[in-house]
Design brief:
The protein is mainly alpha-helical and 200 residues long. The chain contains eight helices and no strands. The longest helix has 19 residues. 14% of the residues are buried.
């Protein structure tokens, strides 16, 4: 099982973090390094071992909280009483929403800035343009889209990432004069997401 990591000193732990190895080792010195193209999978055996550890730890103890933080498993769900429950492969469906929006898009945003393809002034301007664009978005679609530059690390919501991918990122990147090859790569990602989320 992959051990979680945090991107900042007081950051939220992520289970499959895609930020740079420098950040991982800076704030998670005891965490082993993983090959992103060959991540270990969670197994049913790991799951039941974690459940056993949670059940034997004192409730609300530091040990129990550490197990929850490291594994992402809070307790045995009610659904586990079903004979169909086999963790993780047969019970939990694939979740493209979190993968494509909250994981991949967040990683691409961070990568744009870390790589220098989107400078800090451009990123700040991007966030302001995104916030200003709220007037063009009917409120029946979703809540207001916050400034990603200012709010990236404050629980940016999935609908905000979706709006960024589907409506705003490519036009804003073009208007900021970001390298066309970079914009083209992001547009390809948008096309992949739209293809993956299509019903037919």
């Amino acid at each position: 099982m992959v051990i979680s990591a945090r991107p900042l000193k007081n950051g939220k732990y992520l289970y499959y973090p895609l930020f740079s190895q420098n950040l991982v080792s800076a704030w998670n010195p005891k965490r082993p390094e993983y090959d992103p193209s060959n991540l270990p999978l969670r197994t049913e055996q790991d799951y039941w071992k974690t459940i056993h550890e949670l059940n034997t730890a004192e409730p609300d103890s530091k040990k129990q909280k550490a197990i929850i933080t490291q594994s992402g498993i809070l307790r045995l769900p009610l659904a586990a009483s079903s004979k169909a429950f086999i963790y993780p492969s047969m019970f939990f469906p694939s979740d493209p929403f979190h993968l494509l929006y909250e994981n991949c898009t967040a990683w691409l945003w961070d990568l744009l800035i870390e790589s220098g393809h989107l400078t800090i002034p451009q990123a700040a301007r991007f966030g302001q343009l995104l916030q200003d664009a709220n007037t063009t978005l009917p409120p029946s679609f979703c809540g207001p889209i916050r400034n990603i530059y200012l709010k990236r690390n404050s629980q940016y919501k999935i609908f905000e990432w979706m709006a960024l991918v589907h409506w705003y990122a490519v036009p804003i990147l073009l208007s900021l004069g970001v390298n066309n090859r970079v914009v083209d790569n992001f547009a390809t990602f948008v096309h992949i997401v739209e293809s993956a989320m299509r019903l037919s």
